[in-house]
Design brief:
With 377 residues, the protein is α/β, with parallel strands linked by helices. 35% of the residues lie in helices and 17% in strands. It has 14 helices and 15 strands. The chain has a 7-stranded parallel β-sheet, with helices on both faces. β1, α1 (22-29) and β2 form a beta-alpha-beta unit.
Length: 377
């Protein structure tokens, strides 16, 4: 039975297509829960959301403001999604007014911020009056429902692969989703474990927004999500969405993912044109080599492939970088949004031949003979 998706309008004023607009961009690219009918961004009003991301036309219009959207859409959307992911934790006064206006028009509010709207007295009262719901995606489970690390992750007998990165907002989630879909389309049962608010909004069935947890439970919740996914889905492979970067001084998320998932391999996402870390203009980006060295020094895993973000790069430049990285690093390298997931899929099949030997022969893209086969648990 086909599940009806709720219609949704995504707020992302002056940030769509930029680093702090990654939630909105992710929802435009993929959502199993919502049918995105528009994006609010006054700087890009009138454009198509897909084209604004430098991709194919999505037929999702960008509107100047809430009134503009509601005047042009055929009906009021079911939901209003706050689609920014800023470092700041609180709404501006103008953004509060927009959320109140959306409630008055009968729209449920979907919130990915650390500021929980359901605990805001004014929002809660207005939601009750308008008979709408507030969903705080980052709100952690009750204490009684949280998990500490048990070590049972060692009993998982299928490959677990983490998609980590060299920075925040560099494409880890996008690569994880695209790769998960590509594997399932080939008949390989792949399950994605979410670790952030956007992928949970997109419909990931397993995982938790780990940056909202007390640190005591981060590693245990990742482990528990993987164990749960393995038990319920009986998958061939489990992919774990990455957050931030192991080397990033401001965040600890990647360390928790490495510890909690104990991955059999890592795909490392990197934006080659980025000189400074997202939101930290005084912090220089690490090199791919230094990030690989750090990951492999603190965990019992290896980086098996590089995934690239083509931000601020031409098509020709990304092809040159792919060739350079593969020669220099001796690792398969791909930009999945530009060239698809074939190279990454074949890399997984090469490292984990028990996934599906019959599919290996159907993939023609060659990869280096120097890549060893890794064992699983």
């Amino acid at each position: 039975m086909k599940i009806r998706k709720e219609t949704a309008l995504v707020y992302c004023d002056k940030q769509f297509g930029l680093a702090d607009g990654k939630t909105a961009a992710g929802l435009v690219r993929h959502s199993e829960i919502y049918r995105i009918v528009g994006v609010i961004d006054s700087a890009l009003a009138g454009k198509d959301a897909g084209e604004a991301l430098g991709e194919e036309k999505s037929d999702i219009p960008i509107f100047a403001d809430l009134d503009d959207a509601l005047s042009q859409l055929p009906k009021v959307p079911d939901c209003y999604i706050y689609g920014k992911a800023p470092l700041e934790t609180y709404l501006s006064a103008d953004e509060r007014l927009l959320i109140l206006a959306a409630m008055e028009r009968g729209m449920d509010i979907i919130n990915g911020l650390h500021q929980f709207f359901s605990e805001d007295a004014e929002f809660a009262a207005r939601a009750a009056q308008a008979n709408v719901q507030i969903k705080d995606i980052r709100k952690p489970p009750q204490l009684s429902d949280l998990h500490v690390f048990t070590g049972q992750i060692s009993d998982i007998n299928v490959p677990v692969v983490a998609i980590l990165g060299t920075d925040c907002a560099c494409g880890k989630m996008t690569t994880a989703i695209e790769l998960n879909q590509a594997l399932n389309n080939l008949g390989i049962r792949s399950v994605l474990v979410a670790t952030g608010q956007t992928s949970l909004m997109q419909g990931a069935r397993y995982g938790v927004s780990i940056d909202a947890l007390v640190s005591q439970f981060v590693i245990g919740e990742i482990e528990h999500s993987i164990i749960q996914a393995a038990a319920v889905e009986s998958p061939d492979i489990i992919l774990v969405e990455g957050q931030s970067a192991v080397s990033h001084p401001a965040f600890m998320s990647s360390l928790g993912i490495l510890k909690g998932s104990m991955p059999d391999g890592v795909i490392l996402q990197h934006p080659p044109a980025r000189k400074f870390r997202c939101d930290f203009s005084h912090l220089a980006m690490p090199t791919v080599e230094s990030e690989i060295e750090l990951i492999e020094a603190i965990s019992q895993t290896s980086v098996i492939a590089i995934a690239l973000s083509h931000e601020n790069l031409t098509a020709e430049e990304i092809l040159d970088i792919v060739e350079e990285y593969e020669h220099r690093l001796q690792l398969p390298t791909a930009d999945v949004l530009s060239h698809g997931c074939q190279k990454l899929v074949q890399t997984l099949l090469r490292h984990f031949p028990k996934l599906n030997p019959e599919i290996s022969s159907t993939l023609k893209q060659p990869i280096s003979e120097k890549i060893p086969v890794l064992g699983t648990r």
